[in-house]
């Protein structure tokens, strides 16, 4: 479908898959209808759990689908960090010093600009300045960068902690990239799907995804997946899906009652998805409360 | 918020300058947000609002409006995700990741985080005879601090960096921290996710089982009676003991429903409890040992100790935890067996009986008498309603012991509470 250069890199650590690049997150969401779950702390709004940031955690079914469709490759992340050479560290350090200098220049020029403004400061400007001070967005030290020194000997500046490693010069995923599930399994970094139940889950996931649905984890609704008619960001899910491993699996009447009850209570229909491992086919059945009397 | 609702006033509430109400709770970060001083295109991330969802896309594909709204909310999310992790050089802490020790040694510790994170460990230092003490972080603590942008972490390398000023190794990204630190020192991804989830909410989270002897272990749980029960004065105890005695002696009228009551002094094994107990042929209660089944390595072991933010926490001498949390992966772990639950309950502390819920008393109209009640507080108690007896159903529902399980399904965390109901303690007959 696509050449391996335009494929998305999925970082695999301890058999768990993450996406670290925001652009990649955007592509798999809008192009491949794969949502994943954001699990990282969002910088600067780090004391809440409502909105989270990178990395994006992928369900193993999502990973299998993306790799099988040749949309993504797996990267063995722990082995992608060879020890940097002295030159690389020196280069990194000089880039760091350069960025500090740049920041200081900007602060300096801002200070210069503000001192120019002071001469012809209108009443409006004075009021604004006072407001700004009250909001404390600008610490007092900033105006005299030469007086306050930080420990490192440089004036106060800001330090960036990068989220993804793509900007790191010595990050080399090239040597440990796997383009198929089998090669990744052989390398021992991935093991999904490894049994009938996991194969059934992958099959059901793929089948519903190919019908144009968005899929999310359904654990909070008592199923394996939530099935959305569009992007979960905008639309409610219509179904909670449960995966049945084989057409011969026994289904308890109590399960049907429980699923029907739960689906009705959450305004969803429960979807029983039965996987036939021989024919590689999925049979879908939905349960809804009849509502007679 | 409730006070505003209860006390209507003609004044309008103070206007909020925050343009995003969802952001309010996250505003009180304990470190100064001085990164806004850079005007080079980095701006504070704007969190997308949680809005109303639609039922489904319009028939025959999404309508233009639906596509537009979706694109807008997607872009808002991606913009928020792109926000850079920046911190002022004044507030940043520095650490070095030692893969061989599975610890991050902190050489510059700033901020309030270190009052509840990290432990001191003594390590041998080159050129010194005696090992020196330093602060070290467990992998989950280090990732959390790196991820929230409070810690700049180097990776220990063999290259001689003496020529370079303030470079102590290879700089690490958050991605590298995830790649190298998760999976070490028992930290699975699920455990880290639960850790950071609770830390973000403000809980103090420590390990239940200290990974090394240098890691401070939490104090054991207090026995029942030392905790929760309000202590009454000696005087009150004497009075209550006497009053019940004397009342019984003098007001003992014959109760037809308790004919054995009189003979209690003569045949002390003829009380109701004893008779009921001898009539019971099925054993009951949690004191009886369960038939042991073989469970070698159960995943149901408490992993984290939890302290609520108001609990006074001392890092070197942690108090008994407010909660203990079991972390499991739903994809590999099934429901706990009776044996696993019993084992968990056995190490849990006994909880106090929940006090009966009171409907909020109607706000009394201000009376001229109220001032002396305020001055003489003991009078207030006498005038108040008599203490209610605990409701047996509330006590049964709350259980005597409780176990919290965090179930993680690829990043989706659900917390479950299992309670051990004490039906033996609340006989209905």
Automatic annotation (TrEMBL), chain A:
InterPro entries: tRNA_endonuc-like_dom_sf, tRNA_intron_Endo_cat-like_sf, tRNA_intron_Endonuc_cat-like, TSEN34, TSEN34_N. Residues 127-136 have a biased composition (Basic residues). Gene3D superfamilies: 3.40.1350.10. Its EC number is 4.6.1.16. Signal peptide: none annotated. One of its GO terms (cellular component) is tRNA-intron endonuclease complex. Residues 8-77 form the TSEN34 N-terminal domain. The active site is at 228, 236, 268. GO terms for molecular function: nucleic acid binding; tRNA-intron lyase activity. Coiled coil: none annotated. Residues 115-151 are annotated as: Disordered. Keywords: Endonuclease, Hydrolase, Lyase, Nuclease, tRNA processing. One of its GO terms (biological process) is tRNA-type intron splice site recognition and cleavage. Residues 201-279 form the tRNA intron endonuclease catalytic domain. PANTHER family: TRNA-SPLICING ENDONUCLEASE SUBUNIT SEN34, TRNA-SPLICING ENDONUCLEASE SUBUNIT SEN34-RELATED. Belongs to the tRNA-intron endonuclease family. Constitutes one of the two catalytic subunit of the tRNA-splicing endonuclease complex, a complex responsible for identification and cleavage of the splice sites in pre-tRNA. It cleaves pre-tRNA at the 5'- and 3'-splice sites to release the intron. The products are an intron and two tRNA half-molecules bearing 2',3'-cyclic phosphate and 5'-OH termini. There are no conserved sequences at the splice sites, but the intron is invariably located at the same site in the gene, placing the splice sites an invariant distance from the constant structural features of the tRNA body. This is tRNA-splicing endonuclease subunit Sen34.
UniProtKB/TrEMBL annotation, chain B:
Keywords: tRNA processing. Residues 20-33 have a biased composition (Acidic residues). Residues 1-66 are annotated as: Disordered. Pfam families: tRNA_int_end_N2 (PF12928). It comes from the Eukaryota. GO terms for cellular component: tRNA-intron endonuclease complex. GO terms for biological process: tRNA-type intron splice site recognition and cleavage. Residues 78-154 form the tRNA-splicing endonuclease subunit Sen54 N-terminal domain. Belongs to the SEN54 family. This is tRNA-splicing endonuclease subunit Sen54 N-terminal domain-containing protein. It comes from Guyanagaster necrorhizus. The lineage of its organism: Eukaryota, Fungi, Dikarya, Basidiomycota, Agaricomycotina.
């Amino acid at each position: 479908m696509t050449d391996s250069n335009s494929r998305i890199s999925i970082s695999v650590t301890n058999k768990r898959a993450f996406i670290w690049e925001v652009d990649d997150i955007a592509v798999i969401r809008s192009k491949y209808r794969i949502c994943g779950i954001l699990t990282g702390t969002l910088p600067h709004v780090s004391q809440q759990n409502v909105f989270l940031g990178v990395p994006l955690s992928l369900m193993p079914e999502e990973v299998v689908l993306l790799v099988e469709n040749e949309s993504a490759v797996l990267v063995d992340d722990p082995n992608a960090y060879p020890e940097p050479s002295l030159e690389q560290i020196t280069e990194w350090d000089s880039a760091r010093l350069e960025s500090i200098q740049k920041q200081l220049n900007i602060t300096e020029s801002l200070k210069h600009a503000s001192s120019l403004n002071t001469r012809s400061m209108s009443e409006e400007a004075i009021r604004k300045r006072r407001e700004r001070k009250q909001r404390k967005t600008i610490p007092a030290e900033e105006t005299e960068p030469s007086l306050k020194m930080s420990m490192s000997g440089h004036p106060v500046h800001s330090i960036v902690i990068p989220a993804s490693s793509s900007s790191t010069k010595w990050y080399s995923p090239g040597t440990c990239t796997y383009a198929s599930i089998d090669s990744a399994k052989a390398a021992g970094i991935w093991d999904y799907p490894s049994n009938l139940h996991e194969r059934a889950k992958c099959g059901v996931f793929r089948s519903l995804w190919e019908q144009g649905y968005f899929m999310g984890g359904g654990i909070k609704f008592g199923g394996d997946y939530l099935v959305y008619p569009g992007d979960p960001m905008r639309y409610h899910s219509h179904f909670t899906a449960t995966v049945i491993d084989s057409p011969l699996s026994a289904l308890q009447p109590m399960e049907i009652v429980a699923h029907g009850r739960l689906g009705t209570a959450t305004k969803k229909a429960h979807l029983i998805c039965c996987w036939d491992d021989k024919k590689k086919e999925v049979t879908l059945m939905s349960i809804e409360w009849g509502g007679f009397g | 918020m409730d006070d505003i609702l209860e006390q209507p006033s003609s004044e309008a509430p103070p206007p909020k300058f925050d343009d995003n109400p969802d952001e309010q709770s996250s505003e009180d970060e304990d470190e100064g947000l001085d990164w806004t001083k850079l005007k080079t295109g980095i701006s504070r991330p704007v969190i997308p609002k949680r809005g109303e969802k639609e039922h489904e896309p319009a028939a025959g594909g999404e309508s233009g409006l639906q596509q537009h709204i979706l694109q807008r909310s997607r872009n808002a999310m991606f913009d928020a995700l792109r926000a850079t992790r920046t911190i002022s050089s004044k507030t940043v802490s520095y650490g070095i990741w030692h893969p061989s020790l599975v610890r991050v040694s902190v050489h510059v510790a700033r901020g309030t985080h270190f009052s509840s994170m990290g432990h001191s460990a003594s390590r041998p230092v080159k050129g010194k005879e005696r090992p020196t003490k330093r602060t070290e972080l467990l992998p989950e603590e280090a990732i959390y601090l790196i991820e929230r942008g409070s810690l700049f972490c180097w990776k220990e390398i063999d290259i001689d960096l003496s020529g370079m000023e303030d470079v102590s190794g290879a700089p690490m990204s958050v991605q590298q921290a995830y790649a190298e630190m998760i999976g070490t020192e028992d930290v699975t991804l699920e455990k880290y996710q639960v850790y950071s989830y609770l830390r973000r909410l403000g809980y103090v989270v420590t390990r239940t089982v200290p990974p090394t002897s240098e890691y401070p272990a939490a104090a054991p749980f207090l026995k029942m009676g030392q905790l929760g029960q309000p202590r009454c004065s000696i005087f009150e105890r004497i009075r209550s003991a006497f009053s019940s005695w004397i009342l019984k002696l003098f007001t003992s009228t014959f109760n037809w429903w308790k004919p054995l009551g009189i003979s209690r002094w003569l045949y002390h094994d003829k009380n109701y409890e004893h008779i009921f107990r001898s009539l019971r042929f099925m054993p009951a209660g949690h004191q009886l040992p369960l038939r042991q089944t073989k469970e070698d390595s159960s995943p149901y072991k408490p992993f984290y100790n939890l302290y609520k933010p108001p609990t006074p926490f001392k890092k070197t001498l942690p108090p008994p935890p407010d909660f203990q949390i079991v972390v499991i992966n739903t994809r590999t772990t099934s429901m706990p067996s009776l044996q696993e639950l019993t084992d968990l309950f056995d190490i849990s502390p006994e909880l106090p009986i929940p006090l009966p819920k009171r409907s909020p008393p109607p706000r009394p109209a201000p009376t001229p008498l109220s001032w002396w009640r305020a001055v003489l507080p003991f009078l207030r108690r006498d005038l108040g309603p008599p203490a209610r007896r605990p409701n047996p159903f509330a006590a049964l529902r709350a259980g005597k012991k409780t176990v919290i399980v965090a179930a993680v399904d690829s990043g989706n965390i659900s917390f479950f509470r299992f309670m051990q109901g004490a039906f033996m303690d609340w006989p209905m007959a």
